[in-house]
Amino acid sequence: MQVLDWDRALTLLSPHNYALLSTQEASGRSNLMGLGWWTIVSWSPPQVVVSVGQGQHSRHCLDEVPEFVLNFPSVSQAKGAWLCGTVSGRDGDKFQMAGFKPLASTQVRPPRVDGCTVAFECRVSQRLVTGDHVLYLADIVAISGNPDAPMHLYSIHYNKLVGLDSELNVTDAPGRE
Known about the structure:
By secondary structure, this protein is of the alpha+beta class. It contains 4 helices and 13 strands. The longest helix is centred in the N-terminal third of the chain and has 8 residues, at 6-13.
């Protein structure tokens, strides 16, 4: 074993499951954010935690409307998904910029992303400030998906996206150019 710096450790921990966090402002305007810091924390009831940077527009949205959709984009959505992780939603409509079609959710206000492999509709139950991020613990209140698009995206140290399916088939995904 050797001493590692933070950057090298994150590289060795890759890949990280990549998701799109769909949020909404109180005004009703939707936002998308590329997200690698999330995890399932409870089986019963089904719950997830997402970690959002203090300065992110999505944090502002979550504080106004404490609901979100955790969308898992398919490999065919890689280019738009990468864009959602690299530009701010303060200045424009990321659904439009990324070429994604919003779908009305069944239980929460923020929309789902059409074509994703899985979408968890969530309601925030707790909020915890942790250094430069805020953790949002949420109950999953509805689940939908697209079984015909089973290859999800994974981030390699937040520098590259790859596709991986449940059979462990890997493909490079377009994104960062």
